[in-house]
Write a structure and sequence with these properties.
The chain is mainly alpha-helical. It folds into two domains: about 55 residues; about 40 residues. The model has no long low-confidence stretch (mean pLDDT about 80).
């Protein structure tokens, strides 16, 4: 019988795509350990701040917690998602920044709308709710 040439090199699993691309950095155990330790610290500090009521104003506590959350997002992006400006010519970082800008716009707009809806729809403090029944 004749030999069949299927155009297939037999190199084991080298020819199957497993999502490993050349030039894409993969994290080492050291990178994952650093990311994990930073994540634990960035979670424990805000937890401690809330439990011990470190700030008098709750708005200050919320701002500090949001700052820690933003830093933690960056830690996750760098140490676990391995995102930097060098991968894919910087497009992954640019797409992430665009997503973050849209997220900030949507969240800030939603909070602004809900605040103004609350202020505009709630009866004034001077008006007695029981007197409103008499108006009907």
């Amino acid at each position: 019988m004749s030999a069949h040439n299927h155009g297939h090199d037999h190199h084991g699993h080298d020819d199957h795509g497993h999502g490993h691309e050349e030039g894409v950095p993969h994290g080492s155990l050291k990178d994952y350990a650093i990311g994990f330790i930073l994540s634990v610290i960035l979670t424990a500090i805000p937890f401690w701040l809330v439990m011990h009521k470190a700030f008098d104003k709750s708005s200050t506590t919320a701002a500090v917690i949001l700052a820690f959350a933003a830093v933690q997002v960056i830690v996750h992006m760098v140490y676990f998602l391995h995102m930097n400006g060098k991968i894919e010519g910087g497009w992954s970082l640019l797409a992430t920044l665009f997503t973050l800008v849209l997220l900030v716009i949507v969240l800030a707009g939603s909070i602004w709308v809900m605040y103004h809806m609350n202020v505009n729809m709630m009866p004034s403090m001077g008006t007695d709710v029981h007197n409103m029944r008499d108006m009907q």
